[in-house]
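Design a sequence for this backbone.
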């Protein structure tokens, strides 16, 4: 049964190497190369979001041949706003690491 209280955020939403038809949800400027689940969890916490659940042994439906991962967050705002908050933190953290 669908859970309307939570939102699922997949790693593939933020993968810069994927085209949109394979699961990327944001523009390439808001994405990073090959994000990890730990980076996603840290970015969500830094954005002030509270994690409910995470799983790294699952496969994204549009890429069933590659292991991915997801986190589950309470839905307090629209999904696009949640994704944008997380992407800001992911991109800024990666920019600091590359320096």
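Sequence:
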């Amino acid at each position: 049964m669908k859970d309307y209280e939570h939102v699922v955020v997949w790693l593939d939403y933020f993968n810069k190497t994927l085209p949109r038809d394979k699961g990327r949800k944001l523009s390439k400027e808001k994405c990073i190369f090959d994000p990890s689940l730990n980076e996603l969890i840290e970015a969500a916490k830094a954005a002030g979001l509270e994690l409910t659940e995470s799983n790294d042994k699952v496969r994204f439906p549009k890429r069933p041949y590659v292991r991915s991962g997801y986190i589950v967050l309470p839905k307090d705002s629209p999904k696009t706003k949640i994704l944008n908050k997380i992407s800001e933190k992911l991109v800024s953290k990666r920019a600091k690491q590359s320096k």
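The helical segments are 37-46, 79-98.
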